[in-house]
Amino acid sequence: xxxxxxxxxxxAEKTLADRNLQQALYDAGAVFMDRVLxxxxxxxxxxxxxxxxxxxxxxxxxxxxRGVFPRILDETLSPYLERGRADIVDxxxxxxxxxxxxxxxxxxxxxxxxxxxTLVRLLRTFGMGATLQxxxxxxxxxxVEVRKALTEFEERFFKPSxxxxxxxxxxxxxxxISNDDVGRDILTVLLQNEDKxxxxxxxxxxxxxxxxxxxxxxxxxxxxxxxxxxxIWIDKHPEDRQKLQDDLVFxxxxxxxxxxxxxxxxxxxxxxxxxxxxxxGDHPQADDRVVxxxxxxxxxxxxxxATAGEFNPHRDLPKGVQPYGLSFGNGMHACxxxxxxxxxxxxxxxxxxxxxxxxxxxxxxxxxxxxxxQDPSDPPQKDTKTARDTWGYYPVLLGPA
Length: 401
Description:
Blueprint: E1 3-6, H1 9-16, E2 21-23, H2 30-33, H3 42-52, H4 58-83, E3 85-87, H5 88-104, H6 113-130, H7 139-173, H8 179-182, H9 186-192, H10 201-236, H11 241-246, H12 248-261, E4 267-272, E5 289-293, H13 294-297, H14 301-304, H15 338-342, H16 359-369, E6 373-374, E7 381-382, E8 391-393, E9 395-397
Parallel strand pairs: 1-5
Antiparallel strand pairs: 2-4, 3-9, 4-5, 6-9, 7-8
Helix pairs in contact: 4-5, 5-6, 5-10, 6-7, 6-10, 7-9, 10-12, 10-16, 12-16
């Protein structure tokens, strides 16, 4: 097997968009990721993605960001404000699971602390399975834990969620209720279209769990880095603290710049599914792997300037280059939910009244308004369970300085 490495922005952009290259990053994590949307290719991928995009319409992001998320954020933040401190990682898990469980289709009938703690624990275990490629733990032990977590998830959350939705769908087909009564989430869409996508029970469960994970996992990673970069920026530019609280456009630019510097995965990995010619002219074969370094591509000085490796929310970009670089991918596997975490990009620089700023921007903004600052007596720590650049613990103080 030969490994081909892509490191420049333009080559990475082209390679990610090549339809004859299929996903390979999650092969090691097949215990959780086998045949979920992001690992599919060809017609099966197109069919399932088309169906699931029914959930991710423009009004979806507006509804969740403005109608659902503020309530979830306030409820989750309240006990941390009472304590006057928060671990951004722990807080991120708790605030995001409440959001992603809803659009994935996982019911939370109890909405109690013990239930939240269980969902956080399951989410962390699923994340370990999905990112097994970069894990520093024993892979066989991780697989055992993931299978146990899936069994617990199935019994406590998935089965009841399916049963309730099937009853609602039957009522809808009988004309007893309307579409608004059924709701709109990934699980409901898949159950309503079982004739178009034949998913065995176990795969239906993992597909739902994947969206539950994907929506939260990336946002939690992004939140930790964005909070760190913003707090470091404030240390260097204290005059900007008030601006970051008042100007969501500027704060969103900070979040996008942080995402560019810290993609959720440092690399993307592909394998040939047909004839492939790389930008270098090489022709990888079926058992070869193409590794696209998102971290290097996002710091390409030809695109992002001489200070490409530094955090600068005022950065000038070439036309057509997104401020977060290639962190959300490109082509058929571009992230469906990127607007949920990062918000919209305004191509002309004008911000409409219904502009989506993204949940990460809203969380950072809220924390800053509550006086969030680093705790000098309790330094943050990176996650040692993975080779990915991820915060495992990030304490902040809240309240008046």
